[in-house]
Amino acid sequence: MAEQISAVPASAAPGEAPASAARIGPASPADIEALSALLVETVANNGSVGFMHPLPLDEARAFWRGALEAVARGERVVLCAWQDGQLLATGSLALVQAPSQPHRAELTKVMTAPAARGRGVGAALVQALEQAARERGRRLLTLDASLIEGATAFYRRLGYHTAGDIPEYAYKPLGGLGATRILWKLLDAREPARTLPVDPAADERYMRQALALAERAEKEYDEIPVGAVVVSAGGEVIGEGWNRNIADHDPSAHAEIMALRQAGRALANHRLVGATLYVTLEPCAMCAMALVHARVARVVYGAADPKTGACGSVFDVIGDPRHNHRVLVQGGVLGEEAGRRLTNYFRAKRGKPPV
Questions:
Q1: Disordered: where is this region (predicted)?
Q2: Which one of 95, 200, 325, 345 has the lowest number of neighbouring Cβ atoms within 10 Å?
Q3: Is 287 annotated as a binding residue?
């Protein structure tokens, strides 16, 4: 279950190089001390996780021992995000045991250390918990989040919907009754995961072609350096594009749209069945929906976009289970190089030296 994530500063410009990677994996008894310290710290900072301040460390340890016993019984999933031996975040998935709800799980005890906030760690952790739910056949996730803090905005960015608010739901750790908001999300666990043959060398080759187009956008047109390439199911490049918003006076002229238009003309078809789109920056909501409508099989992007990314970073437009077409997504291919190019473009605009 362990996977690598890249945490991106929330204040970064689109495509800014990610921070150091964190490792997400299942919690173990050896993690109890770190988990307990994070729980105590969260409660002391008035985090609504079911406890009152001051929370004795022994009580926190007892909670985590019980949680890991529930993991052993198959009733719960507990994941941790680590970096350089430090616990950055944790989250739990309570697998509902009611016979009438074998499809449901609850997100609970999602906590991020103060030093790790705003770096994308929490979002990656929740997405890992969602994948754990899918693997266990749970397709409906529910949770409650306090209205006093910014938690509901965080979950909305990850595709969760509001069911309603309950006033005076629970006391805050530092005192005073607070309202809570109930949220939910349907996962697409009903269909088996679809896979396509992946050639890492080919992915890098086509991404470098997209990077060359991004460089052309910057140097020839002074456009934001984003490039895109469409490759047919047979391995032929059928579309290329780069940002042309300024040159064409066209708000829709993103690199992906330009490449899709060229590919459609090459195939004399508005459907690009089996094609892969390579783009240097994670697609926005407009481009993500265009990929769905075009029936593209796969999108491979370089740098994540922490402001408008619609392939999982901010929105998950492309992965919404209500679509009648599924587009496979892979991010981070030459992401550091793509992010650095974007960062330096914006730094140059502000008169700052490149990084």
A1: 1-24
A2: 200
A3: yes
